[in-house]
Each structure stands twice: as structure tokens, then as C-alpha cells.
Write the C-alpha cells for this entry.
Amino acid sequence: MPAKRRSKFSRARGQRWHGWGAKKKHRGSGNRGGRGMAGSGKRADQKKPTILKLYGNEYFGRHGFNRTKFINKNLKTINVGELQEMLDDFSAKKHAKKTSDGYFVDLAGLGYSKLLGSGIVNIKLEINVDSASKNAAMKIENAGGKIVKKNGQ
């Protein structure tokens, strides 16, 4: 087995250019035209036809992980205070039924996906909804009602 070979750097000590030829040949990234997308014409109007031909327009622009597509921005929400105010309208639309001591409200049927806790509740409510905040659940339970989650949780 051969002995460990000394690195080029240490062997080139004493030579002016350390084996890289002319002084200009072993400089920074300017030697290779720049770093990254330099020289591609990305920032100006000279988009290089070769790059477009090889990679298409997807070569330019942002790439990578985008978290926003995982965030559901289309949640339809309602506060418990608003819910109490709108009980008459909901019962007219047959999405709320008056029980002996309160109301049963089908928010999922109305298109609401989350119940939020802003407002005051003083009526016993049984609510069918996909999800509810902790504050909303606490206020409903303190008034003697309960939340029935649509997905069974």
C-alpha cells in the first residue's frame, strides 16, 4: 500500500502559482463566469437562447418549497356571539332546530368550518361543526351546551 500522498497545496510551496499556470487562471468565481445564475441574463433582457432551449422558461424564477399551499385560507368562520344573534335566521333556513331547552345548530350544513370564541353566549347550544377554538368550546359548555364535531373528534 502506498504511503499517504502529500496534498498539492503543500507540494506547491515555493512555486509562484502552485500549479495553476498563469496568475489569472486560478482566481475566484470570475474565472468561471460568476456564481449561481450569473451570466444567464436572468436580470436583464438578454435571456440566453441556449439556456431557454435546454431548460425552458422554468430555469428562471423562484424554485423550492412553498408553504402557502398547505395553509387553508378559505376557512369560513363564525364567532359564538354572531351565532347567538343569527339563531332566528338559521332556524328560518332550517339549519337550527329549537329543542326543549336550547337550540341545535348545523354550522357544517351552513358552510361554516370553524367556530371562534368572540362574543357572549347565554343560550344552551348544541353545535355541529368541523372544528372549534378552545375559547368557543369553553363558552358553549359554560352555557350548558356542547359541540358535536362533524369529523367525529
